[in-house]
Q: What sequence folds into this?
């Protein structure tokens, strides 16, 4: 009987130890640096998974947005740029990927640079 108690305690200890560190609540965070030359606003990640907006003035050139939790780990980003008469949505180029697409790592906190936003004619 004592052997079964000891065996049960050992098995329970392994189960508790195996469960440590298996937390699926690792947040993935994303932030942006504006290096597009003009103020940008309404940065939209992965078809609306997360949005960054800075009132009516946008994020000035060379500034960083706040970090926000995102759920989509793969997606495209679009943003609005100040064209003089207001903000207009355009295609973003991310400096680190030279495209508008990203693939994030689960549980990471990452900052990417928006190197350009181009609006159509």
A:
């Amino acid at each position: 009987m004592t052997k079964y108690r000891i065996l049960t305690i050992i098995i329970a200890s392994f189960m508790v130890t195996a469960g440590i560190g298996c937390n699926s609540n690792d947040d993935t965070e994303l932030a942006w640096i504006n290096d597009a030359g003009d103020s940008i606003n309404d940065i939209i990640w992965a078809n609306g998974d997360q949005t960054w907006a800075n009132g009516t003035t946008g994020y000035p050139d060379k500034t960083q947005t706040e970090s926000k939790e995102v759920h989509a780990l793969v997606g495209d980003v679009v943003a609005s740029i100040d064209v003089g008469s207001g903000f207009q949505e355009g295609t973003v180029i991310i400096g680190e990927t030279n495209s508008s697409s990203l693939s994030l790592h689960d549980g990471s906190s990452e900052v990417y640079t928006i190197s350009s936003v181009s609006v159509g004619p």
